Amino acid sequence: MVTENQDQLVASIEKELRYISSIVKQKGRELLSNYTITPPQFVALQWLMEDGDMTIGELSNKMYLACSTTTDLIDRMEKNQLVLRVKDENDRRVVRIHLLEEGKRIIDEVIAKRQAYLKTVLGSHSIEDISSLKHSLHKLHQDMKEE
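^ thats the sequence. predicted structure below, dont judge the formating
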């Protein structure tokens, strides 16, 4: 009986996470419509902002894209002065993608708007509920990373 109840809870959590993910993705696309970047470019900029300079291969792995697709993405972002290809100081054969100020500005603005949206949605929740949600989501994220 406990397993059946637990299975139902897990199914319900998976469904809610799927719905939330879809809404966040849609809201993100709406926000990006005011900028000259595509959703995949935004994801690439986020990775560069969070993890710093990386090769096209490293970025491809993080985004689950083919290197050729990532190369095309970087080409367009470089033309828009969002990123710059830079030769590695230690190994001149290696080229790293560097996030430029315009790319940082876009990320900062979009993230601030996403956070403002979430703050509005969470407006009717108590600070204790919000803190509990943050803690639970963080723990879930850590468990998934270790998996």
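The mean pLDDT is 94.
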